[in-house]
Predict the structure.
Amino acid sequence: MIIDAKTSGKLGKRKLTLADCRNVMDNHSSSVERIEKSPVEGSVHISQVPWMFTEDGMNGGRHPIPNSGVIDTLYDALGGGTNDIILFADENSFFHTRLYYLFRLYGHNVFLWNDSVQALESLTTDRDAAAVPLEDVSIQAGNREVSEDIFRSMEDVQARAGRPHVLLIDVRSRNRYLGLEEPIDSRKGHIPSAINIPLPTIHKDGVIDFGALRYMRTELEKYREIIVYCGSGMSATPMFVLLDEMRLPVKLYGGSFSEWITDSDNAVETGDTRLNERMGRIYG
């Protein structure tokens, strides 16, 4: 469930577990320094590895999705079932949305805080926040299947890309989508038939703007399936959250572009697709 300071009344009276998902991409020491400079009392920091991605995960992109044992372990360690777990971050982040997606992928219910870090104080005034150490937690074995309602593999995308009833959305920057630049991956461009809605367009004042794509609803509702992707499956998760809240049939391509290009048989396009050009003319 998505909450903010105005809707925090949806919480029950249970203890809170504040999960601090603020991180610096692929840099653990800088992430720790960031937390130490502006700690949130009573919270526990959720590092990227192993909780958000693992090398031995279930897909071949840069940030593979952890198996169920990792996420089940974290859920239990944070007091799942007895505490209200609230994931938060700041500055147009995608780390808390990534973890929110992973919990949902394996059937766990948590809260996503879509508001400022400062506004968290309104939650802890009249209730306790449970301190949860994660340093010595042993990760459980487990490899349950993911929820196909919200996940797509590379094979799924290969079978679906270009179908009239399936829409692919690439949330990377315009230049990366067009193939004009690529600072990370070995090939430039996008998955064939994908349109481009860059991630910054859905953020406002540091959080997801749930009205950002309202103007596109009529067009988006034409599709029986919407698959979102980015470079590695991390920064596409805010778009997943937004479209899911719009009650649209959205899935995340977990491996995203960095996995797509590992198969030499997968085509990559540069420039605009006709659909993206048409949407650009309609929605400007």
The radius of gyration is 19 Å.
